[in-house]
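Priority: medium. Attachment 1 of 2:
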């Protein structure tokens, strides 16, 4: 009986990520494999939405790269995510921030939430 519990514990090596919501600015360090090489690429942007439940959550991060909006979807339980760093807490009033896609410049800014 103890052997089964030890085996289950070995497979349950979950990474703990910080709590974040839509509107927060995060940096996702993502491991990329190109051929035989492996590197870590950081993707910094605003969290547009979080969907899913329990351990199958996915979150979308949006950034502006040379005046073009780039969005990327990350599964929260992905083994390729090295770390998630919350840079700024955003003050927003809704869970899905699709309206940011139509905004550019200073209008697309999110106010910072004071703790």
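Attachment 2 of 2:
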């Amino acid at each position: 009986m103890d052997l089964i519990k030890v085996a289950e514990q070995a497979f349950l090596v979950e990474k703990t990520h910080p709590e974040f919501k839509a509107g927060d600015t995060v940096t996702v360090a993502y491991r990329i494999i190109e051929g035989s090489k492996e590197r870590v690429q950081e993707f910094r942007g605003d969290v547009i939405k979080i969907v899913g439940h329990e351990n199958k959550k996915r979150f979308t991060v949006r950034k502006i790269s040379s005046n073009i909006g780039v969005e990327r979807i990350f599964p929260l339980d992905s083994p390729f995510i090295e770390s998630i760093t919350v840079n700024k807490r955003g003050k927003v009033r809704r869970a899905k921030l699709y309206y940011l896609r139509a905004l550019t410049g200073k209008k697309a800014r999110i106010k910072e939430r004071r703790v």
